[in-house]
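Fig. S4 source data, part A: sequence.
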Amino acid sequence: MSSISTVIRRDSFVFAIFLSAFVYLLLVFGGVLPFSDEDSLKPIMKGVMLVGFILLFCFVDFRRKSVESLLLFSAAGLFFGVLLLVRASNFEFAVEKIDGAIVCSCIVALLLDHGYRRFGRERFQFAFVIFSVFVLILTVVYKIRFGFFDRSTRFFLNGPIVYGWIMGLCAILSFDLWSSRRHSYLLFLSFGFFLALIWTESKGSVLAFLLAMCVYLLWDLRRNIKSIVFVFCFLFCVFFLFSDVLMDMLSNSRLAAVGRFLNGDLGGADEGSFGVRSILAEKATQEFWDNPIFGIGIGEFRFGEYVYPHNQHLEIFAELGVFFGIAHLLFVFSSFVVASRVNKAIILLFAVAASFSGDASYLRFLYSFCLIGYLGREPVSRGQVREA
């Protein structure tokens, strides 16, 4: 036991990678409670994550103030979650939503907070990027074997939506590291993660990433105008050199629907992308107006084959009512206000992406980075850097 404790307490980059991997896998599997209405493997992996977190909690010296703050948040969330389960007809789906939005968010936030404080924000951020590169390589190998451009083939650990969100996150983190360190390979990593995001053909994720990066760049414009000019010149050169290839690749992809949407030239092939989502949004809005106070109940949204409206913000209003909906919006907005520059971009990335895909369990992406802003933005260990 003492040897395990000694290894864990060392400020080694190996442990930073391990902690980053744990964060990555938590975001992928969506929690630690062994419930899932999707497949039999997911509950097993969640159980493994639960055991892993218990071991970490026993041997890692987490900051007491952070633990207390997150316990308060999770206790409040689980208290209301248990009350909401009384009305749930699909118990496993409801538990999965609570697990992802509350339990997983708190654990990820705690691990991020610990990583930032023990290793410094940039060092831990770099560790997460390195592990993500490793997963990206495995994903490329897997897709080459089973269908590189087949979107229905899993992106190794997860589907295209979750993978696209994580690639967008890694692109922002890599770019932020480049902004501080000025190592050219970090800029190429950021571009590589962006290409991986394009690879998923997830339109909402791409739009969310572009908006988040615009906010990041504009936020940094006054203090770092040379870097911004350099980046735009770099992207212009890439587009100029490879524009024909890129346009040819995208012409037959799902992303071409974005251009048709902007031109008002949607066709029948775009019905699933825009038409169905529009109908689902109208359905969720109507459910809210019909049940404004308490909503229709967690996990109770139904419209044909769809069991969530593909808009997590509307889903909360429709299923939980106006009080939970307003609390959700206030939480996200206040977190954005107190967040650091890079965290503002990440919060915006997931807040916008949540408007296009995923059910409430996917709120783990958004809430994790909302919570980290309240746990103290300044790293306190060696490797410390100034938060912008």
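Fig. S4 source data, part B ends here. The chain has 16 helices and no strands.
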